[in-house]
Amino acid sequence: MIRPRLIVIGNGMAGIRTVEELLKLKPDLYDITVFGDEPYPNYNRIMLSPVLAKEQTIPDIILNDDAWYAEHNIALYKGVRVERIDRVKREVITQSGQAHPYDRVLIATGSRAFIPPLPGADLPGVVGFRSIADVDAMLAVCRVGGHAVVIGGGLLGLEAAAGLVTHGMHVTVLHRNGNVMDRQLDSAAGRILEKTLEAKGIVIRLNAHTSALKGTERVEAVVLKDGAQLPADLVVMAAGIRPNMDVAKNSGIYCESGIVVDDTLQTYDPKVYAVGECVQHRKACYGLVAPLFEQAKVCANHLAHYGIAKYIGSMTSTKLKVTGVDVFSAGEIAAQPHHEEIVLADAARGVYKKVLLNNNVVEGAVMVGDTLDGAWYFQLMRDKTDVTALREHLLFGQAHVGDSGHGAKARVASLPDSAEICGCNGVCKGDVVKAITELKLFTLDEVRAHTKASASCGSCTGLVEDLLASTLGGDYSAAPSVKPICSCTDATHDAVRAGIYRHELKTIRAIFEQFAWQTADGCAKCRPALNYYLLCAWPDTYQDDPQSRFINERVHANIQKDGTYSVIPRIWGGVTSPHELRAIADVAERYAIPTVKITGGQRIDLLGVKKEALPDVWRDLSAAGFVSGHGYAKALRTVKTCVGKEWCRFGTQDSTALGIRLEQLTWGSWMPHKFKIAVSGCPRNCAEATVKDLGVVCVDSGYELSVGGNAGIKVRVTDFLCKVATEEEVIEYTTAFIQMYREEAHYLDRTAPWIERVGLPYIQRRLIEDSAGRKALAERFTFSQQFFQIDPWLERSEGKDAHEFALPLELV
Amino acid sequence: MTTTWFTVGLLTDIPRLSAKVVTVQGTAIAIFRTQTDDVFALEDRCPHKQGPLSQGIVHDKKVTCPLHGWVIDLHDGTALSPDEGCTPSYPIRISKGVIELGLARLDALARTI
Ligand code: SRM
Ligand SMILES: Cc1cc2nc3c(=O)[nH]c(=O)nc-3n(C[C@H](O)[C@H](O)[C@H](O)COP(=O)(O)OP(=O)(O)OC[C@H]3O[C@@H](n4cnc5c(N)ncnc54)[C@H](O)[C@@H]3O)c2cc1C
Ligand code: SF4
Ligand code: FES
């Protein structure tokens, strides 16, 4: 079979990432040929800094070796430079004049170091910092006591300087502006960084303008405008980069400051695509890999003829990869009049943090010395979270806003290799670091897949992300701003939810079609989410799809490690009776249930029930008046109560009765994740209401409502929502809050992460300030409840889904 | 060794994207039906920690184990990368909507059925 030919020009990070994404989508679509003018297979350019600093070697940083190209039938031309594209004949022409016919071309030529046009700039010993060849040239000159001058005090210049200093060179950085890294840091942060680097032995000269390089055979000295002359065995030019546009220009493809592409990464010639540092997209050129990888994904989608993905630009953040020097910067760095600055400066400790807010939304962050929370600020920035409620603690970091579980572990870089990172799967720091470096992992998902770290309960996700950042150095672990639901699609949760309404999608298959799902039946991650979204959108008409539910929800019981099930009857508000207890005891004896346990949620768990026995167990429990406790479900779990004013000498209201009332109103409703409520009779809070998704604390004058608590993986205390005077108001606010959560949170978001994403003020605006909106939410909840408050146990003991419990097939 | 075919039931006994179990000499064998009506048979034991694969979510020609989410290829029972492991698979054929399971070790089995 003759396949269309795809030619990739440039064997660098963006080009090959695009090929990898394409192979994932359509492995056999094209005959692929790659031209690269470097004599190496694809390598991790970012890691040239650690190579220069002797922390890594060239073999360590090869991303795809020759065998990989062979395995995927990719013809690789190493050390071959492309001259131009003959777009009429559809041929790519190499420098030696060879012609290679194509059907599609991908230009990924990257950029090169900008060498300022100074006298002497062409002398041997003057190098850029871009490629393995450049690093080799530097290492060839390195010797203890030698002199190196780095021109340019940006990210690359400082990384070069730090690398050279480790070889015992005398290193001077010449920077033309008032502080180093002035594109990422303000002057205060720059000052602290300068001090830290000077302590490493690097000399920094600010406002320094070079006038010439001197030397006869090789470079010998650098002359400054003020007449000063610095000895130099080596000069590293790190004064900026310029996109490589020669191939595009020679081929008549439209360029401005980069090769101009649209949102599909197509150039002005529809047969020619371009990605990476060589392109200009919506007026912006990028010089970091995270955005280039996003481009690669979109470009691959179009090359594979899916034609649905769109690249709309990226927000970027920067980290400096110098061991022992922590610098992070994202978004805006200088305060505009509309900005509010929050600053923490501790010069003695070398710590500086600044966050810029616009209307309580983070628009920029600059950090030196302590960058642990960089990823968090970046996240807040991307999600446009309203941080009013976090303001006071913002600079103290995420650990101060409730991430109690792992506070002590937080300094991940300083942990020993034997430190356990993932408690569920017993994965240590050393295992994770080894996997990242040896298997060349880039993303959290890849680390999860290969090490299982953070693949179970997820509480160590932050630690793993920090490890990725500290191991890779670059910021390319940063998740793209738009996270698809799963690898079956590029569509996000929000896009799908909006699409369901806009296009009136009524089935999972209709969603697959509308959003061009890339797998035949989705997967165990997306199908349950879609099933939920449809059910929430069309409560009265949607036909639930049992095959898209996890087994627990399919059989309304919890699967155990031996394949048996556990059954938890609902015990309203934790109040039971001799009659109920007797019924439970009878069931336990009748079906020889091995374990009967009081749960952490004020109920009784029957563990070890065989699947075939479930309908009978439910029938008997139903007959005694029990309904399902949904101990398995993304739905209301328990309403914990305390005894309250009926008995307790401190009780202010009837917390028990209120709890029971709330439970009877809200049980049965499907939600993005499980939901827990508690009602305490006074501020002593014996029902632990302040770690529930919704907590009610009764006081003499009414009820204090708070939301977003969690006592699980990551303990988070609730945020105070409001105080109300009557039980009716408690019910209105509670049902409105639940409905808002049902309609807006992503599947598998509990209320705590959801609120952290959208910000408490948003919730307050919707529920407190907008009383008509609140009432409408509460009404929608009540409407949908009429379809969901049906006891699944009763239905099934009466024969629904009988095939699930039918005796197994038999050999005949 | 020759394969002997045993009738296990009708295709329509198994809803699409789900599985049913038959037990042969104490070994539970899960029979899966895909969206496109392909049928596969695997031992009902995940290579990870023996999870009942028949209770998992079926998608395409794969099943996700209900216990810890390994994904198993229905064709031959191998775990998808990066997980490693394999669960035994059995041949299946369908004639006129009747599912037949192919078993070797005919003599031993024939005597027990
Ligand atoms: C039975 C019980 C433990 C016990 O013996 O007491 C329990 C058992 C399980 N919990 Fe729990 N949790 C139980 C109370 C709790 C509590 C305490 C509470 O509700 O007051 C918490 C902390 C409070 C909270 O949720 O914020 C709790 C936090 C979790 C978490 C972490 C949730 C989180 O958002 O961080 C999980 C994991 C999950 O849901 O993804 C979990 C998951 C589980 C699962 C479902 C794990 C699983 O998928 O198999 C366990 C099911 C066992 C079974 O088959 O019954 N369980 N679990 C408790 C049942 C209460 C009930 O009556 O329904
Ligand atoms: C020292 C260093 C440290 C860095 N640190 C970071 C970091 O910490 N974080 C981060 O996000 N980014 C960092 N970067 C930037 C990152 O490496 C680049 O953004 C990324 O490599 C760009 O990918 P690309 O594919 O566009 O270009 P490249 O990776 O440069 O690939 C382009 C390839 O095309 C080849 N080529 C060019 N023209 C032709 C032609 N005509 N014919 C054939 N081949 C051609 C080039 O030789 C090159 O091999 C760093 C860069 C350097 C140099
Ligand atoms: S019951 Fe909860 S805490 Fe106990 S092992 Fe299971 S998930 Fe973990
Ligand atoms: S037993 Fe199947 S994934 Fe663990």
Please characterize this protein's 3D structure.
The complex is a heterodimer of chains A (812) and B (113). By secondary structure, chain A is of the alpha/beta class. Chain A has four domains: 5-110 and 243-303, FAD/NAD(P)-binding domain (3-Layer(bba) Sandwich); 126-239, FAD/NAD(P)-binding domain; 493-549, no CATH class; 554-788, Sulfite Reductase Hemoprotein, domain 1 (2-Layer Sandwich), CATH 3.30.413.10. Chain A contains 26 helices and 36 strands. In chain A, the strands form ten sheets. Chain A has a five-stranded parallel sheet with strand order 3-2-1-7-19. A five-stranded parallel sheet of chain A has the order 9-16-10-11-12. A five-stranded antiparallel sheet of chain A has the order 21-22-25-24-23. In chain A, α1 (13-25) crosses α9. The longest helix of chain A has 18 residues, at 727-744. The model of chain A is unreliable at 402-409 (pLDDT under 50). Chain B is mainly β and 113 residues long. Chain B starts with a strand and ends with a helix. At the A-B interface, loops of A face β1, β2 and β5 of B. Bound molecules: siroheme, flavin-adenine dinucleotide, iron/sulfur cluster and FE2/S2 (inorganic) cluster (FES). Siroheme (SRM) binds at residues 457, 558, 560, 566, 568, 597, 599-601, 603, 605, 629, 631, 637-638, 674, 676, 710-713, 750 of chain A.
Topology at a glance:
The complex is a heterodimer of chains A (812) and B (113).
Chain A: E1 5-9, H1 13-25, E2 31-36, H2 48-52, H3 58-61, H4 66-71, E3 75-78, E4 82-86, E5 91-94, E6 99-101, E7 104-107, E8 111-113, E9 126-127, H5 132-141, E10 147-151, H6 155-165, E11 170-174, H7 187-199, E12 202-205, E13 210-214, E14 221-224, E15 229-231, E16 234-237, E17 241-243, H8 246-250, E18 259-261, E19 272-274, E20 279-281, H9 289-303, E21 317-319, E22 327-331, E23 340-346, E24 351-358, E25 361-368, H10 374-383, E26 420-422, E27 427-428, H11 429-438, H12 444-451, H13 461-472, H14 493-502, H15 508-514, H16 526-537, H17 551-555, E28 558-559, E29 565-567, H18 578-590, E30 595-598, E31 604-609, H19 614-623, E32 636-641, H20 655-666, E33 675-680, E34 694-699, E35 702-707, E36 719-724, H21 727-744, H22 751-758, H23 760-769, H24 771-788, H25 792-797, H26 802-805
Parallel strand pairs in A: 1-2, 1-7, 2-3, 7-19, 9-16, 10-11, 10-16, 11-12, 18-20, 32-33, 33-34
Antiparallel strand pairs in A: 4-5, 5-6, 8-17, 13-14, 14-15, 21-22, 22-25, 23-24, 24-25, 26-27, 28-29, 29-31, 30-31, 34-35, 35-36
Helix pairs in contact in A: 1-9, 11-13, 14-16, 21-24
Chain B: E1 4-10, E2 18-24, E3 27-33, E4 39-43, E5 57-59, E6 62-64, E7 71-73, E8 89-90, E9 92-95, E10 98-103, H1 106-112
Antiparallel strand pairs in B: 1-10, 2-3, 3-4, 4-8, 5-6, 6-7, 9-10
